[in-house]
Input
Amino acid sequence: MTERRDETRIEEAIARLVAEGRISRRSFLRRASRGGLVLGSALSLPAILAACGIKPQTSSTPPANPSGSTGGAPTPIPSPAGELDFANWPAYIDIDDKGKYPTIQKFTKQTGIKVTYTEAINDNEEFFGKIQPDLEAGNQTAYDLIVMTDWMIQKMIRFGYLEKIDKSQVPNFTANADSLYVNPWYDPNNTYSLAWQSGITGIGYNPTLTKRAITTFDDLLDPAFKGHVGLFSEMRDTMCMALLSIGVKPEDATVADVQKAGNKLLAAAKNGQFRNFYGNDYYDELANKNLWITIAWSGDITQMQLYDNPNVKFIVPQSGGMRWVDNMAIPNKAAHPVDAHMMMNFWYDPANAVPLSEYIGYFSPVKGVPDLISKDADAAEAKGDKATAAQLRVVAKTVNPTPDELQNVYNYKRLTEAEELAWNSVFEQVRTG
Amino acid sequence: MSAAIRRLRWAVPYLFLLPGGLWLLVFFVVPMAVMASISLQTGSLGTGYTLSWNFGIYPEAISQFATQFLRSFEYGFIVTVLTLLIGYPMAYTIAFRGGRIKNILLLLVILPFFTSFIIRTLAWKLILADQGFVLGTLKGWGILPGDFGLIATPIAVISGLVYNFLPFMVLPLYVALEKIDHRLVEAANDLYASRLQAFLRVTLPLSMPGVFAGSLLTFIPSVGDFVNATILGSRDTTMIGNVIQSRFLDFNDFPRASALGFVLMATILAMVLVYARLVGSDELTSG
Amino acid sequence: MTATTMPLTATEAPVADYRPPLRSRLSRLLLPVYTALAVAYLFLPIAVMVAFSFNNPRGRQNITWQGFTLQNYVDVWSRPDITDPMVQSLIVAVVSTIIATALGTLIGLALTRYRFPGQGTTNILIFLPMATPEIIMGASLLSLWVSLGVSRSLITIIIAHVMFNISYVVVTIRARLQGFDRGLEEAAMDLGADEWTTFRKVTFPLIFPGILAAALLAFALSIDDYVITSFVAGKTITFPLWVFGVSRLGVPPEVNVLGTLIFVVAFLAIAAQVLWQRRQARRQLVPSRAP
Output
């Protein structure tokens, strides 16, 4: 009881601070760019004209660097090029009110590496489509370091489009990564990728409109909500949630299971149950009450509660939610691989992971971050800055998943090309009929 | 000098065509030819593609997505007719009654399109939201049932398309109307024609090149559109553009996506040729 | 009153003391009122955009009104992440419009004034880019560049924009060129003008509204293009690309500010042009009124 009152007080404090303008809205911006509109892959001309089978590229290892460094602050590694092209999603890195990236500036000061940071990634498949022709042709892409969602990392590994990571150059990862993010399902032994941030897909809903509490996935199929239910346009999130609702773990799902789950959705879709299939724009629809209940991401709902609609709720459905991890990776033939390694190493230093998490607020892969954030909160409190302290305490709570949340979330499945085609076909039926 | 020019007169049209034609050749025809060859290949991204001259993919693709094709043409047709009905009076007013502010008016028509289409479409989503300030108020007054929604309906998609393509209709119409000699209309009036008759028998026929151009500029792009269907529509309004997107993006199925694209292009071209015949057989071939 | 020498002026010149019946007067208002309403319809989303440029949202979404502020108009200048893409878009739009309009006008002239073998094929070639789905055009161009080993940049964007704009320019110009009375040109040449002077003084002014309309259309298409640009942009970020990316999270009000400012600037430019034209016209009238 007291805990809830504490939380309410914290939230009230935040709301008041925000209203007073003491916290800038940017300091609570979250990333949420997965799936949605537009853009696709293309082919490489020579590959096609060659008119013969194309072997997937084998990745080459970056120049091996024998001088390993021991944890802590990044020690200078020989021969970085001094430049780095880093592509990321929008609002996925801390930014100050002037539009500058303080942590990146810190990196540059420490290492002398000039970073060109572009928010070029809006959608996994769209970005894949843009770099795929170059990768297929064995060219350099424009980027040294990219951030992709776990299933896309698996897909890129399948095609052989990523450089192997030289662990000796990222000692901070070995020392500081939370075990949840080591040796993940999509990239055994972290051969090609290191986790960036993680989150949960569940269900968001507006209780004043649904008029009851929501507990499980099948609530999305309640005819009382017809026309006001949202699903994701992203195949994996939607199909996996549906699989869970028929009692199948996504990692074990066969194509027959997927067909069954798809038929369940299709029957409802034909009835007009679902308003539409959304990318990030589900946020608007939920906020402006066009949607009453929808698949959603945890961080977004927290956002909405703070700023746009305090009534909305987020749940991990009883049937199960999905856990996703976004990862840093190096595309083949990257021009500055050593610099890319140094940057990846940099983010696994808790000193740098903390400001990142304080800004983004999704789950951090670095150990000890919540405690450090609490320490920051204490420090702020000691200085008399109750506002920042309260803000930081909320973040400290959300930056790691609770055991409850972890209990009931599942991973995506590693798909072969044939399986991907099958899953996509089923979903296409649901989406377009 | 004039004698030299006269000798080379045959070359003039080709000279005029050369720069633009070359540009289109290199940057459109060649890439499209590659796409055509891709459509005839079989395989996948992982296993590689081989040129198997798989012409069967065309009827396959058509039958698989016949609904979306038909729907797209249906929407395109409705959008063209609506923009013509809405845009013709606008173009007429600007051309005939615009006077000194003609240019301002013309610019007012096109000015909204200097802002990003995302902003415009998001603004429409806001305006047409179920509980937004338009529908919400109407529902509050009891004029509309509480359940009524415009977003995620074909009406919203078509409205979005009409809105976005209105200038494409108005501009060519204006251009054709503006050059009509007013004395012809006056002459008709002098010959006891009513205003309506003068319009139907003088102005309208003379403006047909504009009607033709505007219809083309509206119909052709709107059939292939996918943005409005995505943002304002639902699963029942998916257009062929959405399908092609998905085939490229989600399936990495380049042969089928290319095939769908070519079917779309070919069908549109056929319709345009028929339309040109109806409007006046000279239109297409004489330019 | 005899006809004026300019064949293309507006004609309404009611005889003094004649008052048309009420019904006729009202019906004459019909068209202007309709047009005003239609323009208002066109501007409705713009009005929303302008209104929300003054909004002060606490969160990342600018979708509910949360308070008036002018701060956005100050902030936008210190946001290079917003203004840079806009500058890129403007450069692309201006350059590609100029090139596309020039190339397209030439093609339009060739197609309407001459008969030559290959005319039908050219016509079809002109229609095809308009009918092609943008994703296919974009993807195929990307393949072209990759196979040629050309990296994507502002130049490749401009090339793509010119490519898809040519068709729109040609179709618009043709609406103007069809039925063009060659008699005026012939008269000029009979009076001793050579081809170039005839073009400059007779042909060009007469087709200019068509060229202008085509250029406007091309500019609007270029500045708004997302799909094709996204494929061929490489690391360059144009305004639609940026807005698209950001719209997934919430378009900051500074974007509305930029949109509003562009709008205002364009409007002022036109108003200035019209006033200037009026002044020119007035200057021309004065001598002829002198007794």
Summary: DSSP finds 15 helices and two strands in chain B. Chain B has one domain: 65-286. The first helix of chain B runs from residue 2 to 7. Chain B touches chain A through 46 residues (CB under 8 Å).
